[in-house]
Amino acid sequence: MLSFSQYIKQECLKIGFDDCAISKATSLPIEKESYKKWIAKAYHGKMKYLENNLDMRFNPDLLLPGTKSIVSVILNYYPKEKLTIDNNYRIAKYAYGQDYHFVIKEMLQRVAENCQQKYGDFQYRAFTDSAPIPDRLWAKKGGLGWTGKNTLLINKVSGSFFLIGHLFIDWELEADRRTQEDLCLDCDKCLKACPTNALFEPYQMDATKCLSYQSIENKSAEKDIPPKKFRNWIFGCDICQDVCPFNKNPIPTTIDAFQPHPQLLHLHKEDWQQMKPMDFGEIFRDTPVKRAGYKGLKQNVSWVKDS
Predict the structure, then answer these.
(1) Count of CB atoms situated within 10 Å of the CB of 300
(2) In angstroms, rounded to a whole number, what is the distance separating the alpha carbons of residues 164 and 138?
(3) pLDDT tens for residues 206-253?
(4) Whole-angstrom distance, CA of residue 303 vs CA of residue 231
(5) CA atoms of 207 and 219, how far apart (whole Å)
(6) Is 129 a catalytic residue?
(7) 8 A C-beta contact, residue 31 and residue 136
(8) pLDDT, tens digit, for every residue of 86-104?
């Protein structure tokens, strides 16, 4: 009979996750101090929520009392078809399909329920970028990748076009001992490709200069970055991922929920510029782009349209 640790990994893979790792739940004091220094430099800009719950962010027991193990998973979201670049605006690939928060959380809950049926009741919580959790840190601790010079988690096999989720569990599971060494080495393609110098040095990001921040978090119609620097990105940005050697031959996701709405693939600049609220609601229903809202997306289009 499989152990609980073996079984939960098996279930994660069976349900569609690309990889899974288990870490022992501990507090992260060193990482907490590093994060506080980043916040102190105001690299998070207007994302004031990142200042909150510092103790909870780096102590799993404060999120789920009694947490002993953290199961981390990654899920490929790279689309089978990409938006055309010619005469078009661009949105980050993770935003093509349904909102990953719902997709991953539902998958994790199914895994937990299957485990409860086999091993009995236990307390758990499922997370995916939905609570004060250092997602990449826990995935890295489990051996699912290394922190790249673009600050993203990179996996030797899967690259970086994946999402991260976690199950906090109050059972003691067998922790993984694997690690992935930093293979960025002397490569600096992501730093050179960033049009705004948000990646001002290896492994460091000033989020206020990132196009993702400017097109999503900065709600003002007047952006802090000149229109020509946006390079037609109106929601998020994939530049530092697109140039990464570990994303050279990405494998498309098998998750149907992440495939784009058919109409999205046929949009051109004039369609974005003339888009009506009804069109926005139809194309972007239940997608991450809903976060920007119709007004926010139109603001972004107006800002970059003449660049």
Answers:
(1) 24
(2) 9
(3) 999 999 999 999 999 999 999 999 999 999 999 999 999 999 999 999
(4) 11
(5) 15
(6) yes
(7) no
(8) 999 999 999 999 999 999 9
Report pLDDT digits (tens) over 28-78: 999 999 999 999 999 999 999 999 999 999 999 999 999 999 999 999 999
Q: What is the DSSP letter of 204?
A: B
- The conformation of residue 290, written as its DSSP 8-state character, comes to G
Run of H or E residues at 146: strand 146-147
Catalytic residue among 129, 188, 271, 279: 129
Cα separations (Å) of 8 from 47, 115, 194, 195, 291? 35, 7, 39, 42, 33
Element (H, E) at 160: none
* Distance of alpha carbon 178 from alpha carbon 290, whole angstroms: 38
CA 104 to chain centre: 11
Residue 191: both structure tokens together = 């730093």
Do residues 75 and 255 lie in contact, with contact meaning Cβ atoms separated by under 8 Å? yes
Print burial letters for 132-168: b (CB count within 10 Å at least 16), e (below 16). Answer: bbebbbbbbbbbbbbbbbbbbbbbeebbbbbbbbbbb
List all residues 6 or more positions away from 277 whose beta carbon is below 8 Å from its beta carbon. 294
- The whole-angstrom separation of Cα 20 and Cα 143 is 9
Q: Which of 276, 303, 269 shows the shortest CA–CA distance to 87?
A: 269
Rounded Cα gap, residues 285 and 270, in angstroms: 21
pLDDT-based confidence at 130, cuts 50/70/90? confident
Structure tokens given for 116: 């409860």
- H and E: helices and strands count for the chain: 12, 8
> Alpha-carbon distance 210 to 182, whole Å?
23
Closest CA to 173 of 50, 16, 10, 21: 21
- Supply 38's token pair: 């980043």
